[in-house]
Design brief:
The protein has 260 residues and is mainly β. The protein is built from four helices and 15 strands.
């Protein structure tokens, strides 16, 4: 991992309050696993101080040949609002790549993988789907959004494998929860990323096959020193009793940590 000023190459609004940001720099050549993330210092505007803490944003996809990262994020506060105002040519202070991502080698050769995502937990699953299909793995995606205006990357996922879209209000795809379709899918290994209630529900449904979950957690430092992102383990024999999402995760095997 390194710290560098990455150059903004593109910034596009792709859904309601959701932006796709592309950055160029050496960090793009150091990503080793889908599901890793970067820690970004959001630039302030003229006459305004930058937010003190960096923002962790998962890596959607990487193009090492062109030294480019693609990130997708939702505007939810001052930091992400400032980030959405950056333009091509501007530089952003980035620290990364960070964390342990999804283990792609858990799927047997010629096997099938199921990916379950919700909202802004969807982006890292795209890079995972790319990595798996490159290995000849058949992928199925179950993606949940609030409504049709919140949907992004449907066509991109569909180009890689079967894609089922759920919306809370039924305005696009199927109405309901992502867990409604898990029983319809054939898979050897499952991967999930999204809000905590979704991860809990998925973990309750998938009990007979390997499942890996990527946690969304507030972070301070991003490399394990501040312990702001610590979560408890479920193993009573574990003398440490916690894991740091930023460096021990953000991806964990289901049941390894408490989803609370």
């Amino acid at each position: 991992m390194i710290q560098e000023e990455m150059v903004v190459t593109a910034q596009t609004k792709i859904a309601d309050g959701v932006f796709e940001l592309r950055l160029s720099g050496r960090i793009a050549t150091l990503v080793t696993e889908p599901g890793q993330f970067v820690h970004m210092r959001v630039p302030g505007e003229s006459g305004m101080l930058s937010p003190v803490l960096r923002r962790p944003i998962s890596i959607c996809s990487v193009d090492p040949a062109h030294r480019e990262l693609t990130l997708i994020y939702r505007v939810v506060g001052l930091g992400s609002q400032l980030l959405s105002n950056t333009c091509p040519g501007m530089k952003i202070d980035v620290f990364g790549p960070l964390g342990h991502g999804f283990p792609v080698d858990e799927v047997p050769a010629g096997g099938r993988a199921l990916m379950i995502g919700g909202g802004v937990g969807v982006p890292p699953l795209y890079g995972l789907a790319e990595a798996l299909t490159d290995r000849g793995i058949e992928v199925t995606h179950i993606l949940g959004f609030r409504s049709d205006k919140d949907i992004f990357y449907e066509a991109q996922f569909a180009a890689l494998g079967e894609t089922v879209i759920f919306t809370d209000d039924g305005s696009h795809g199927r109405k309901g929860l992502v867990t409604d379709a898990i029983g319809e899918a054939a898979y050897d290994v499952a991967y999930a990323c999204g809000p905590l209630p979704m991860l809990k529900a998925v973990q309750n449904v998938i009990t007979e096959k390997p499942l890996f979950v990527s946690m969304e957690q507030r972070m301070g430092c991003g490399f394990g020193a501040c312990l702001a992102c610590a979560v408890h383990t479920t193993d009573a024999q574990d003398h440490k009793g916690y894991r740091r999402v930023c460096c021990d995760g953000p991806v964990f095997r289901a049941g390894e940590v408490e989803l609370c």
